[in-house]
Design goal:
- The protein is α/β, with parallel strands linked by helices and 509 residues long.
- The protein has 2 domains: 174 residues, no CATH class; 255 residues, tm_1862 like domain (pyruvate-formate lyase- activating enzyme, Alpha-Beta Horseshoe).
- Helices cover 39% and strands 15% of the residues.
- It is built from 20 helices and 18 strands.
- The strands form 5 sheets. The protein has a 6-stranded parallel β-sheet.
- Helix 8 links the parallel strand 5 and strand 6.
- Helix 14 packs across helix 16.
- The longest helix has 17 residues.
- Iron/sulfur cluster binds next to helix 11.
Length: 509
């Protein structure tokens, strides 16, 4: 089988989903080829014939190869200003590689002024008019030979993010038109979300032969004649990863120890709304899998992509040392109250933890069902900081439980703890369409599309989106900038690059 991960996603690490599918297929003796068309496609555009229009683009074009090389060099990650200049220059080139009147492309986003990613009719139009897609020349130059070389009748497209949707369908249209003997299989996180909608009616059935919700391993194995295989956890197969391709200061490999979220109770969370069955393996088995990855691929970093790494797995990690550094998402669990535990994590290679604080107001947290005690948070942030682990704290403003006064309490809380917070991510709440919260609120369509996953709503406390955005831009960002210890978030790459800014001495290029 040929598995393709289409653009646009951040081009700093290989995709995990197709690596897990590849492992499942190969374990059953089935041939599997993986193409990361995301990184290859983005680099194709960046290295295309770009015509500079001003002094900025002239400079960026002149330095193009140097910029690409610098982004792979750990030295760049010692100077945030220089890093940002490089990233913005590269992004400038990428943005100019397409018809700017119609397409907007960046290192992390993609949009088309004529077609919407959340409208099934538009997605089918993207397939029909695939020649108009900016990645069409890449399909011909970078993918045609690979499709021709694949002996399998099946091609899988892994559609995980909204920014991949229009390109994925253009790719599907190109394959359908050019390789009539191939059968198309569509899966990935975004497809799962679409298919979990109660009103989903498979609008793509004339284009896609099989759409798969949830984990694709078992359905793909069934499709290829391997019935009744119930195994859910695999060690990802990263044999497809080409050296020196990704925009990162070392080899990063994503790894997932669990499926779904072990907490799954936060009222605002799409993970809860989608009710994906949670599954994890014994911590000792996961450590053994990570050791195998370490031995086989020698990554510089492992990105733990679990929704939240379980305390049991963290405990197992804290007593192991690997050849790589790692970072991932965790909840504010009691275990972090023990400074020795935090030091153990640092010893095991933990350079950064991402933490969903969401609010600095205990009443808001309780109504969210977040299960977080702010008294714990204070100690945990301090312990992690003292252990030398970077903290990347996520805040969510504008939930139905928050009013302006609560938002100010969050700001005060963050300011009081800013010495222990390295990065902040500020988000405006989007209401998941089929969540329990949506049933109790007056709602309106947010994006105009039948596949939209979110709703706008009339805020019960008058704390509406416009006011929330204004508060974030004019109050939070302003107050956190002046004399704050919190760092600037890496543009486009955000947490995917954040951990590297203290690691100069630990990276071997
Ligand atoms: S812990 Fe995170 S992933 Fe889990 S339910 Fe809460 S917000 Fe969602």
């Amino acid at each position: 089988m040929l598995l393709i991960f289409p653009p646009v996603a951040k081009p700093c690490e290989p995709p995990a989903g197709v690596a897990l599918l590849s492992a499942a297929l190969k374990e059953q003796g089935l041939a599997c080829e993986v193409v990361d068309a995301n990184v290859e496609g983005l680099l194709y555009l960046i290295q295309s014939d770009i015509i500079p229009t001003d002094s900025w683009s002239k400079r960026a074009l002149k330095n193009r190869e140097q910029i690409l090389s610098d982004l792979k060099n750990p030295d760049l990650y010692t100077n945030m200003d220089r890093y940002h200049q490089r990233v913005y220059d590269l992004n400038k080139l990428l943005s100019m590689s397409v018809d700017t009147k119609r397409f907007k492309i960046s290192l992390s986003d993609y949009s088309d002024a004529r077609l919407s990613s959340v409208n099934s009719t538009d997605l089918l139009k993207s397939a029909l008019h695939y020649r108009e897609n900016p990645f069409y020349p890449f399909f011909e130059a970078g993918l045609r030979q690979k499709v021709l070389a694949s002996a399998s009748p099946f091609i899988g497209i892994s559609l995980c993010y909204l920014n991949q949707a229009l390109v994925s369908f253009a790719l599907a249209g190109w394959i359908r038109d050019n390789f009539t003997d191939k059968r198309l299989v569509l899966g990935g996180g975004l497809v799962s979300s679409w298919m979990s909608r109660p009103d989903y009616n498979d609008p793509f059935k004339d284009l896609i032969d099989l759409s798969i919700p949830g984990e694709g391993e078992q359905p793909l194995l069934e499709l290829l004649g391997r019935k009744n295989i119930s195994k859910r956890h695999y060690v990802p197969d990263y044999d497809f990863v080409k050296p020196d391709l990704y925009l990162a200061p070392g080899k990063i490999l994503p790894f997932r120890a669990s499926i779904g979220c072990y907490w799954s109770k936060c009222n605002f969370c799409p993970e809860k709304a989608e009710t994906r069955a949670y599954s994890s393996q014994r911590a000792s088995k996961v450590v053994a899998d990570l050791t195998a990855i370490d031995e086989q691929y020698a990554p510089d970093f492992v990105h733990l992509i679990d929704n939240a790494v379980t305390p049991a797995f963290l405990k197992a990690l804290s007593t192991h040392q690997f050849g790589f550094k790692w970072y991932g998402f965790v909840r504010f669990e009691r275990e972090f109250l023990d400074p020795a535990f935090c030091h153990g994590l640092k010893q095991s290679g933990c350079d950064m933890l991402k933490l969903g604080l969401e609010s600095g107001d205990q009443s808001v947290l309780d109504q969210m069902n977040k299960g977080t005690d702010l008294n714990f948070v204070s100690t945990i942030l301090k312990n992690l900081h003292q252990a030398g682990i970077l903290t990347f704290v996520y805040l969510l403003f504008g939930t139905g439980y928050e009013d302006e006064a609560a938002a100010f309490r969050t700001l005060d809380y963050v300011k009081a703890h800013q010495d222990y917070i390295d990065y902040l991510n500020l988000s405006v709440f989007n209401l998941p369409k089929f969540s329990a919260d949506a049933e109790n609120l007056e709602t309106q369509e947010f994006y105009h599309g039948d596949l939209s996953l979110y709703l706008n709503f009339t805020h019960p406390l008058g704390w509406d989106r416009r006011r929330v955005k204004h508060f974030i831009d004019k109050t939070v960002k302003k107050q956190m900038r002046v004399g704050s210890a919190v760092r600037k978030n890496p543009a486009f790459f955000s947490s995917n690059h954040a951990a590297f800014f203290k690691l100069k001495e630990t990276i071997t290029s």
